[in-house]
Amino acid sequence: MARLLLTDFGDPISAVRLDDSPPPAPGPDEVVVDMLAAPLNPADFLLMRGLYGVRPELPAPLGAEGVGRVVGGAPELAGRRVLVLPGLEQGLWADRVVLPRHRVLPVGEDVDLHQLSMLAVNPATAHLLLSQYAASLKPGSWVAQTAANSAMGRYLTALAHRRGLRTLNVVRRPSAVDEVRAAGGDRVVVSDDTLQASLKAALGGDRLSLVLDATGGPVVKELARALADGGTVVTYAFPEGAPRVSPADLVFRGITTTGFWLVNWFRRASAGEVATLYGELAGLVADGTLAAPVEATYALADYEKAFAHSLEPGRGGKILFTFGG
User: Fold this and answer.
1) Which among 18, 176, 268, 320 counts the fewest CB atoms within 10 Å?
2) Which domains are delineated in the chain?
3) What is the mean pLDDT of residues 205-216?
4) 296-302 contacts: CB < 8 A, separation 24 or more?
5) Is 0.70 surpassed by the pTM of this model?
């Protein structure tokens, strides 16, 4: 089986090698899955650099989510297309994997394979962020998000609209404004030196109810200023700079800052809750509610090109590994 292994923490390209070895024999509660597609996510690069929430023992297999087909173990799943659920264990950047039975969930054959491969992490995070922090918000409330032109931003926009919420979307470059508007963003502003004035104009006297942040830095301070008293800032991705919130907003206005990591939800969730969540999300992928653009696909052997492409600034879509079968 061909797979990518992390041999050292550091530069993603120089610290990874392509390994080819026989897959282990499946145990009584395991399945053998031929992978079909697996995305590259920012968290993967954080792990390779040693900056993620876990540091696996090296050499370590890589790849956190994807879609495959069961080719061994669990006779009731034989030949079925399955979503691989995320966990602390990596290893899906491989043409064949052996997994615990509870980590796979059957999905439809008629749903776009690339979109399904991206389902396990970002759509689930977007859904849980809104269900946990926006459940009490009234229809028409404003939810702000940074990195609004990312795949995650698209998922948040779509799911917020299903709840009747309005989105204020922050992007880094003017060229992304029309893209986010076309994807359904209600208001779009650029995080430049006009941000404070742009926020005021975009909100028209309203206040934000929730800020969902993936970038950190000074932009969070401005968004927190636009929050209603008692509002919340949630950081769900490893920021490039600390999410700066004025102590005055924390003390005098009751602004709350907190963080979210999908892995922590998995640690608490029951098998029924996991199945319900992903069953609902798979349906939203199937009907086109949840979708993100894919810019390019690569074979596993071309991982250096895939890494370089994924790390390019201003990319217009996700990068995936795809496999035969």
Assistant:
1) 268
2) 2-118+292-322 (3.90.180.10), 122-263 (3.40.50.720)
3) 95
4) 296/320, 297/37, 297/114, 297/321, 297/322, 298/322, 299/323, 300/2, 300/3, 300/4, 300/18, 300/93, 300/94, 300/95, 301/2, 301/18
5) yes
